[in-house]
Amino acid sequence: MTEQVKSKPVPSLIGGASIIASVCVGAGMLGLPSSGAGAWTVWSSLALVLTMVVMTLSGWMLLEAFKHFDLRASFNTVTKSLLGARVNVFSNLTVYFVGGILLYAYITSSGLIIQSMTGVDSKLASVAFVLLFSLVVWHSTRAVDRLSVVLVTFMLLSFVLGVFGLAARIDLGILFDAANVNGQYAPYAMAMLPVALTSFGYHHSVASLRAYYGEERKAQKAIVGGTAVALTFYLVWLLSIFGNLPRASFGPVVAQGGDVDVLLAALGFAIDSERVANTISAFSTAAILSSFVGVGLGTFDFMADLLGFKNDRKGRTKTWAITFVPPLLLSLLAPFGFVLAIGYAGAAAAVWACIVPALLARKSRMMEGGYTGFMAPGGKAAVILVLVFGVLTIVFHFMGLAGWLPEAELGMA
């Protein structure tokens, strides 16, 4: 009688898509209403659709480049090999900066939200938040998968309940800004792009996802599934928010850096249902947590590859410290506006989430066997699109900092 060999469980596409969606949704759901207030409904929606397409393509381009390397390889190994040491150093700095600034934003916002809900000091709440949920990342990718599925399910339920309550109160006059007859919207979309790019900044997790599935095709499907879910969430969310909170009401929110607790407070005043307000707060908390563990996982794997730490208890503990301690300390010492932090992350992310993937795909196709196996669709045109989008996003960010782009102000003229 032959002994049956137990095979390892095959990772599901739902789990992978949940990781991608959860990484995206935290930053986007909480940062887009404030950053998109100037562009408002139509132009914000167009900017999101364009960004989703470009960022999905760029993720596939990373998979195309990674196919030449071991499953444990991450940005550091692949970029250094294909683009050289100098490009690699700059890319590494932007990858760690984006991961760190996003974790910083989530840690700071989680502390503020927990404080508003429980009265616990925000700094103490931030420390407890990091110590508790970073352990999931330290444990394993599978643990993040399981938690992500739970969080996305909870987010979906609370989102449906909260959005249903908001949708029942949508005022079409508010949604299409009827009070502002001569309003200009298109110029504000340029300033929105860095936050929109960050809202689809799942690229920390591409290498982890490829290693999880053991091949590129399933990772490709998980990526497009996750970004499609995120886009759907964003569009429905913006319609619900912009249909309830007048454009002019975003002035005070923007003035305070777009902090999540300020946005939630403004929304609470705009609607007359405590149940809906509480449901939206619960959804926002879950969104921050899901993005925290998702971005944490990608940054964790990147740092382990960069520094050569082993995948044992001691090695993972050192990687944990490098990943989570600096953003926690920065959050405690110098907290600032959520949207401002996300905007900086978007400008830096454009380097490694658009420019570097396009260059890697181009270089990959020049290698022996470059046109065999997995390839991102779109050919040379897609590479140019991703590259130009990344460059323009950086340009728009610095134009905004210099005051050369219109800013969302009180009155929203």
UniProtKB/TrEMBL annotation:
One of its GO terms (molecular function) is aromatic amino acid transmembrane transporter activity. It is found in: Cell inner membrane. Keywords: Amino-acid transport, Cell inner membrane, Cell membrane, Membrane, Transmembrane, Transmembrane helix, Transport. One of its GO terms (cellular component) is plasma membrane. GO terms for biological process: amino acid transmembrane transport. InterPro entries: Amino_acid_transport_2, Trp_tyr_transpt. Gene3D superfamilies: Amino acid/polyamine transporter I (1.20.1740.10). The chain crosses the membrane at residues 12-30, 42-63, 83-107, 113-137, 149-170, 185-202, 222-242, 282-307, 319-336, 342-361, 382-405. It is a multi-pass membrane protein. NCBIfam families: araaP. Belongs to the amino acid/polyamine transporter 2 family. Mtr/TnaB/TyrP permease subfamily. Involved in transporting aromatic amino acids across the cytoplasmic membrane. This is Aromatic amino acid permease. It comes from Marinobacter litoralis. The lineage of its organism: Bacteria, Pseudomonadati, Pseudomonadota, Gammaproteobacteria, Pseudomonadales.
